[in-house]
Amino acid sequence: MSATAVEIRPPVWRRLIGFNAITGVIFGIIGYYLGWFLGHHITGKSIAFFADIDQNDLSVLLGYFFGVSGFLIGLGFGVYPWARLRGYPPSLREKETQGTSRYFGLCTDHKVVGIQYLIGIGLFFFIGGLNAMLIRVELLRPASQVFPAGQYLTLVGMHGTMMMGMMTSGILGPFANYFVPLMIGARRMAFPRIESLTFWLLMAAGAVLTTTIFFGGFPTGWTGYEPLNSQANTGMDSYLVFFALVGVSMCLLGLNMLATIITMRAPGLTWSRLPIFCWAVVSTSILNLLAAPVLIAVLGMAILDRTAQTTFFNPQGGGSPYLYQNLFWVFGHPEVYILALPGMGIVLELLPVFARKPLWGYRLAVSGLLGVTLLSWLVWQHHLFVSGINSDLRPFYMLSTELISIPTGFTFLCGLMTLWRGQIRFTVPLLFCLAWFFNFLIGGLSGVFLSDVPSDVTTHGSFFSMAHFHYTIMGGLVFAFFAAIYYWSPKMFGYTLNERLGKIHFWVMFISFNSTFAPLFAVGFLGQPRRTVTYAHNLQFLNDWVSVSAFVLGLSMLVFLYNFVYSLLFARIRAPQNPWSSLSLEWQLPSPVPVHNFDRIPVITGDPYDYGNPSPGAIPATAPAGGSS
Amino acid sequence: MSEFAANETDYEVVEGEPPELLGRNLNSAGHLLASATAFFFLAFIFAYFYLRSLNNAGLWHPKHVTPPTTFGTLVMALTVLSAILVRLGLADQRAGRRSEWRLKAAVGLAAGVGVVVLQVVEWATMGFGPADGGYASVFFGWTAFNLLFIVGTLFWLQNLLATAIRYRNVPVGGKPTPGHASGDPGRPGHDVADPLSLVRPGLEALSFYWTFLAGLGVLAWVVLYLA
Amino acid sequence: MSAQPAAAGSSPAHGRRFLAAWIVLSAILTPVVAFFLGPAIPPGNGSVEATGQVFDNEVLVAVSTPVCVFVVLFLGYALVSFRSRTAEIVDGPPLRGDMRIQIAWMIVTGATVLGLAAFGTYELLQGGAGGGQGPNAAFLPAGHNHALDVQVIGQQWEFTYRYPTFGGLETPQLVLPANTLIRLHVTSLDAVHSFWAYQLGVKADANPGTDNVVYVQTKGARSFDIRCAELCGLWHGYMFDTGQVVDQGRFTAWAKQQQTYFTPVARYLPPYATTYMPDPQRRAG
Fold first, then answer.
1. CA separation (Å) from A385 to A394, A397, C109?
2. What does the buried/exposed string (b/e) look like for A371-392 if buried means 16 or more CB atoms within 10 Å of the residue's CB?
3. For chain A, what percent of residues have pLDDT higher than 90?
4. Which residues between 34 and 63 in chain B have a beta carbon less than 8 angstroms from any beta carbon of chain C?
5. For chain C, N or C: smaller number of CB within 10 Å?
6. Domain containing residue B219
7. Is the Cβ–Cβ distance between A217 and A209 less than 8 Å?
8. How many domains would you assign to chain B?
9. Which residues of chain B neighbour C277 with C-beta distances below 8 Å?
10. C contact set with B (CB within 8 A)
């Protein structure tokens, strides 16, 4: 079968021409200047805009629009609509791309997209982390010293926006794209082109946000509150375009995941046999699909406010800043669960493997995930307890917020009881999962303070809330992310990551993480607000402690990076097909997984947690694929 | 078998999927897209009622801001007409009346283009601008984004119609000549053996979504012009 | 589902041992945390609202302690007792759930959560607990009809204060009388600010076009820190100040003196109002 596919590959320079990332970047730059010129041409005729021509929002926004469009066309996303426009059926040419170059273009193989996501998201995660390091450098002294106030705010805004925006796909992007089709016994995602589009949109978004520094940055932080948003200079447009693109990417990712899990499950894979990670993907995708449109809408209103002079958020013109705060948090609270739920899914998926026990209380865990999904829509005004909105509704939001700890508690109970009386093996992924429990516990308990109005009066907008969400997001999502990468890299790359370096990475990261964020609870209680370049002198010791810990935390990332590069590129120790003796479907495939995943679609006869069953044979029936044919 | 050496293509495998899969995928995608669209416009509905209830600076609805109801009704009616035509076209397509469904879809497409044109003319002639208070903002934002969704859906409809027209002479269940099928001159064979098989599932999902958008158009008409 | 007999036999012992350890540890730690750590949690004793918040924090931290002990002890116990001691991979018992534990867990977490929400609501009912309540305050303290009105105006990048009962005078200093119920009206002229009087336990967002009311019952004379707690633009980090609570007599004297200073500029200022609508927004940092 493979003998027929021998072909003579053209020289490298010839292969660089075509639809790929290089063409994309060139088209993107051309598109940007085209839009920029167009914007100036349109607004140049108006006196009002002429007065501040260097603050031409329309020109910048059109530049971004054409730039992103050009980037996508250069990558080859225009081929499909152009063919369909002329009535031709889709060509599957993308599928044929071979070798390393397919990682730099439109590729419809879900495994390629997963690895693209891993590297791409990782890149922006490191940029965002570097911003955090610079913030901590500035906070070594109580007064402004290294960065001027405006630059500091841009750093804070870029760190927050980069993390909150890009990391929404932090687990769904790499791991769900790669493993959901494998776990459900499918050969592809439901919409492979859209899958690739979500990734490249995210990359375009990241590039757009980074270019904010050419327009003077933006002063609003990741929340982009109006009316400061409307006052700010053109750097704000980068923020708006970034988040809108992320919103589109999130929405499409959620749609694709849901469609895949609904329609492409292998025969026998009923909903009650779906791996718990897939359930976490389902609940996250529901939030992605429904919350992101609200974000796009509110950013669309903000863009109209800045260009077409609408007055959605301008109280002097019949609008209201509260409208922004309401709509932003209608998206914003589901958003934080978009960040938290995949982490829960990873932890619950991995614990049975390393405790050698079935997942305890599968139905309870699923109802916990879905309960969080539902309740996360009903709590958004707890971000606005002191803002003066609907003060009489605060008891309701206090109740609904605290109710979320019930379904969250379900996942805790299931995870803990899975460990109970197991045969626990201390691998690096398990260590990260256990750290997840500890961090999320602290994050959850501090959340109770923030959900309680009297306590929230002190902690709202202070470093306490900042420490709280870092415990839930960094302690939850990022620790689960590392658990996943240590767990799945033998399958994704065919090589195992070094365990010793992994343990060093874990301990340095876990200790420095807690040493960084635990003191910030105290700092917040002692009255230091978020996002300020100055703070009270008596808080300097705590802040210095936090800064130094943060630098160590940053170093621990370098340990991981070293491990990753060293293990995959230099040590190259072949991983066995199933190093963890997992019963999950993806581990029954060879490493790395062949392009078409399964020779024959497997028939599923049980859930993937059948550990300790004295009568084996109930293991999900699988058809080993790939090389055998 | 190394990953980078995996140079066999898997058309057989991809083609080996159950034939109803595309329909199921598009069907679920249509419903999911509709729910996402609903949440998108919920933001505008919320903005409408929120700003109306606050009436900040008394500028919710200044006296001179009067939306042209005739235009609005026309826009709404044409959207609904187009959606009904696509529905009828789907029934024809299901019954195998190929030229009838193409005609209905073409008229539906024309009606949709009419919606776009009328909406632009309405903006240009209606005597108030986006800066004229809360209502004007919501009016512009809502209609503008609604138009974006309409244009996207019309593009989808056009694609299906173009496929149906291009392969109009291919008998049902038959295959177009090689080289003609894929629209990609560099390709020896074709990826989708029967391009006409793409039409039915696409049309079913499109028809659902287009009806949904028309429903949203009626809602917009009620809220923006009548309320 | 047949469990391995040896493992099943040791199950109750583990469960009871863990529960006993948890109860003992919680019984020791909870009072320690509640009575030693709890009262040390800010914002202190600067006003009735601040005292209420300290009490609130005390209760929350006490309730959190057994929860925290439960999870950490569970992790520790499981890791020590159930770690695999064999080289080859051995499976644990196939336990897939226990309805009694699940129901007990739901009841306990549900009761805790409802109790906390009820407690928070009760505390909130005591006059709003120092948080901003918007133009129509829902939770009014006793005697709110006789509260002293003080307006806080956030603007880029300072707070100014107006006293409607003293001719609408506007000053850059916040001085409040001791042992008085104060009604602060927080509003903004431009971006969203947040007025945070730390030791008084007061935080209220300043939104343009909105009158955000917050009640605070001052105690004895003291000074307090004021910071802006909502990102409001370039110099947000420098938007801090110190306010004073002074005795009634000194307050009256101060207000008289300020009125004298204020008279010459009074005609340049807009008359006192709950909100102000200045010029349309312009670009700033």
1. 7, 9, 24
2. bbbebbebbbbbbbbbbbbbbe
3. 69
4. 56-57
5. N
6. 42-181+192-226
7. no
8. 1
9. 57
10. 209, 277
Q: Average pLDDT of chain C?
A: 88
List, in order, residues 6 or more apart from B59 with CB less than 8 Å away: A311, A316, A317, A318, B133, B134
User: Tokens 């619950």 appear where?
Assistant: A348
8 A C-beta contact, residue B187 and residue B180: no
Phi/psi of residue C131, nearest 5 degrees: -95, 155
| Residue whose structure tokens are 């007409």 | B81
* B70 lies in some domain: yes
CA angle A43, A47, A48 (to 5 degrees): 80
Q: Which chain A residues are Cβ-neighbours of B4 within 8 angstroms?
A: 98-100
* CA dist., res. C216 & res. C195, Å (int): 13
- Chain pair A-C, CB pairs under 8 angstroms: 330
| Domain membership flag for residue B30 | no
Q: List chains touching B (3+ CB pairs under 8 A).
A: A, C
- Give me the phi and psi of C151, to 5 degrees please: -100, 135
Strands C175-177, C240-246: pairing is: parallel
The token duo for C272 is 């006192």
Q: Can you name the CATH fold of C144-268?
A: Immunoglobulin-like (2.60.40)
ipTM tops 0.90: yes
pLDDT for the residue numbered C269: 85
Residues A437-480: tens digit of each pLDDT:
999 999 999 999 999 999 999 999 999 999 999 999 999 999 99
Question: Nearest CA to CA, how far is B128 from chain A (Å)?
Answer: 12
Residue B69, domain member (yes or no): yes
Closest residue on chain A to C42 (Cα): A525
Q: Tell me if residue A88 falls in helix, strand or coil.
A: coil
Domain ranges of chain C: 11-83+99-125, 144-268
Question: Which pLDDT tens digit goes with each residue over A402-434?
Answer: 999 999 999 999 999 999 989 999 999 999 999
Tell me which residue of B138, B130, B78 sits closest to B108, measured CA to CA. Answer: B78
Q: Which domains does chain A have, with CATH numbers?
A: 27-90 (no CATH), 106-588 (1.20.210.10)
Shortest distance, CA C276 to any CA of chain B (angstroms): 10
Alpha carbon of C127: minimum distance to chain A alpha carbons (Å): 10
The answer as to whether B3 is a domain residue is no
Average pLDDT, chain B: 85
Measured between CA atoms, how close is A90 to chain C, in angstroms?
47
Residue C281 to residue A227, Cβ atoms within 8 A: yes
CA A433-A517-C198 angle, to 5 degrees, is 140
CB C64 within 8 A of CB C70: no
Q: Residue B50 sits in a domain of what CATH number?
A: 1.20.120.80
Higher per-residue pLDDT: B181 or A196: A196
